[in-house]
Specification:
Elements (H helix, E strand, L loop, with lengths): L1 E7 L3 H8 L5 H4 L3 E8 L8 E8 L2 E13 L3 E7 L5 E11 L2 E12 L1 H5 L2 H26 L13 E2 L7 E2 L1
Antiparallel strand pairs: 1-7, 2-3, 3-4, 4-5, 5-6, 6-7, 8-9
Length: 169
């Protein structure tokens, strides 16, 4: 089971705004493009979006369905990947001070993906999640106009204030 987390420097509501826009799915989910809602009202239960996955010259049209939604805090999806089967993807948003801790938990449900699941496959999912969460963070932070002060790297100490010509340590 691939579980990964990422701290995004915006409140959970700003992250939810991006997750709740089915047209933006292809912007933050690695390997997808051209997403658009096809059924229901995304991200409500049983709503679905369709998107394209490109694997070299091969293009596959896939679909993701919402299986559970707690508006503003939790989204559980079932991604259909044709012959590879389906996967459960749970995305949880937790307030973390002024920021949002995003936790993604993915595992195969049906089909070849479940039968082929192993440590190597798990490592690939972890790499994909790292890239996906970085994309999501960039979208959310850019949309919110996160400034240099809120966007500084974790562990970076500021000495003095910017108004008095302070510097970063």
């Amino acid at each position: 089971m691939a579980v990964r987390h990422h701290l995004i420097r915006v409140p959970p509501s700003a992250v939810w705004d991006v997750l709740a826009d089915g047209d933006r799915y292809g912007e933050w989910v690695v390997g997808t493009s051209g997403s658009h809602p096809v059924r229901g009202h995304w991200p409500h239960k049983d709503a679905a979006i369709r998107y394209r996955v490109r694997l070299g010259p091969v293009r596959l049209d896939n679909e993701t369905t919402v299986r559970h939604c707690e508006e503003g805090s939790r989204l559980e999806l079932e991604a259909h990947a044709g012959a590879l089967g389906t996967a459960r993807i749970a995305i949880e948003l937790r307030p973390w001070g002024e920021d949002c801790l995003v936790i993604v938990d993915e595992h195969p449900l049906r089909g070849a993906g479940g039968r082929l699941h192993n440590v190597g496959f798990e490592a690939l999912i972890q790499l994909r999640h790292r890239a996906m969460l970085a994309r999501l963070a960039r979208l959310c932070e850019d949309q919110a106009g996160v400034g240099a002060e809120r966007g500084r790297a974790l562990g970076q100490v500021t000495v003095g204030s910017h108004a008095d010509g302070g510097r970063h340590a």
